[in-house]
Structures are given as structure tokens and as C-alpha cells.
């Protein structure tokens, strides 16, 4: 039986949530059933990742490029059974795939950009609506994101599916030995409550609200430390903001980008995600899987992950005072932290496991092909969720 050939199309192979989702598929989909290739718009230094070839269609110079022709040539040469494009940066792949006669075309939206999260430009809405009509399947990673695009495009939201992100619960779990070792490296004593956040340093992540909440906390006399893991365009501005506030001196650490997020998560006593907009945060999922009590802004997919008061706490985006009060409540109540963290871990295991995500993608790809593939995987090959 021929394997189903899938070509994943993404703007670039960086460290974001979309790219991490692709890496999970490259490792998780059944290799005897699927052959996977990765196509990037931006040139990539690597030619292979997780055993999959990497091909690129864009120019190193960047700038606006017309990519339909290049995508079409690539698809005609490689002949994938399925092309799966992601987000606005790869929208032209839908047109090219149809022109190249690809059997099945899938498109997914995984989040929102800082410049367009409130409202999409009219041109994007027109192009998306036209292109979505040419796909076999369109989906988002959260119900909130589905509703957002349905409203923006003025289409029935039931035409858009939802496949939530998943987390490897075996990899991301509490490890007391890792916690002790890494806390020593951070210089955190046993009495300090370590608040942490993980993500790209971008305006949409709204770290400034977290800084203001830290000022409120310190004014209350809380013994807390904030560790920020990640890098991005806002880093210099954020560091300058901290340096200009004498009351935050020595209380905020910029850890930078790391391949060892797991160790930092095991150090955190509390995890915070103050974003202005989200698709479905992998960082929040990982923190919940480790069993950390989490506070997140009530935007995007966050309320779909956290049941407020049970498996975490929610607050209105930009509300630094409420965030500070909830942080203070958790800082002085280790038993409540343990309860929230335990509930978070159980919720992820039940609803947002990597196993369930892989199952959902397997079903998506086989259903998108339908009878178009003579060697289609029979239903018995699809693992039950």
C-alpha cells in the first residue's frame, strides 16, 4: 500500500507554536502510513528535520513575492497527495495546489498577528474567503479562533473545523530533581515564589501588563521573582522598561530563547500568560501538563484550556490589578497552587494529549482524501482517541 504523501507548508521554520505543531506531526504520524515533506516560504538553512525533507520557495531577500508559480512548480515536481498550508503567509499555496492538480488541499489558521488581531484587512478577508472555497478542509486550533474567522469572513462557522493542539504529557511532567537543580542556577531561595512566562517577546504577548502587576505585587510586600523565557522583537524595549523602574531591579530575569523549556517550567511556582490574543498556546498547555497553577488572559483559546477556578485562573487582558491580586492569592497559598496544578495536569491528560492530537490529524488527512487515494488507510488503522 502506498503511503499518503503530505506536504506541510509554513512561512518559516522558527520557534513558534505553528512550527512546533508541525514538528509534532513529523514525529507523531505513523511513518508506515504517511510520508511527510516540509515546504517553507522563507529559505531554511537545514535540508531535513525530524527525518523529513525541507524545501523552500522564497528568496533570501524577503519582501513581497508572488509565489503561486513557484508553489505550483514544486507541487508538480513532488506530487504530494495532500498539501496542508498554514496561516496567511502560505495562502497562495491553496491556489497553486489546485492548479497543480493536487488531490486534497487543507488549510489551517493557528493564531493572530499583532498588527491585525483586532480586525483583518479587507484584502485578506476577500482572498481568504475565495481560497477557503478551494480547499477540502479548513480548520483552526480553537473554537474562539474559528468564531473569529467566521465573523471576519462572514461565513458559517460550521464550515471551519477545530483541531486543538496537544502536548506530550510524558515529556512535560513534574520532575522534583529538575526543579531543585535549576532553582539553584537561578539563585532563587526556597521562600521566593517564582513566577514564569514562556513565549515570543512580541507586543501581542503584553509583557508590560505583567510588569505592572509585578510592581503591584512588590508594593504588597510579596517575595516574588519573574522569569521570562523567550526572545523576539520586543526584547530590547522590555529590558529598557525594566531598567527604568528601580523597584523591579533584580526581580525580573530575561532567560532568552532555550531548547530546555521543560527545566524552566519545573522551576516555576506560577505560570502567567498575559496575551492580548491567542490561538491555542502550546506554552500554556506545557505548563498545565507539568502541573503548574496557571493564570491566563481570557482571550482566544485560553478559556478552552483553563476552567476558571478549577484548572487555573483567568483575568481580563490588560487588567494588571486583577492579575496582581490573583498572583498574590496564589503566592501565599501553596495548597491552592497544588490543587490548581493537579487539576490542570488531569485536564491536559484527558482532553489535550499529543495522542489525541495525532489521532485527529490522522482522521483529518484520511477523510480529506476520501476515495481519491487507491491505497487509503482503512478505518482500523486510525487509533481511537
How would you explain this protein's 3D organization?
With 385 residues, this protein is α/β, with parallel strands linked by helices. The chain is 39% helix and 17% strand. It contains 14 helices and 14 strands. The protein has helices spanning 17-28, 68-78, 92-99, 122-132, 143-153, 176-186, 207-219, 235-243, 261-267, 282-290, 302-305, 320-331, 334-351, 354-369; strands spanning 4-10, 34-40, 48-49, 52-56, 82-86, 104-109, 137-140, 161-162, 193-198, 224-229, 252-256, 270-273, 294-297, 313-315. It has an eight-stranded mixed sheet with strand order 3-4-2-1-5-6-7-8, sandwiched between helices. Strands 11-10-9-12-13-14 form a six-stranded parallel sheet, sandwiched between helices. Strand 10, helix 8 (235-243) and strand 11 form a beta-alpha-beta unit. The chain is elongated, with a radius of gyration of 22 Å. Mean pLDDT is 91; it is low at 376-385.
In short:
Helix content is 39%, strand content 17%. It is built from 14 helices and 14 strands.
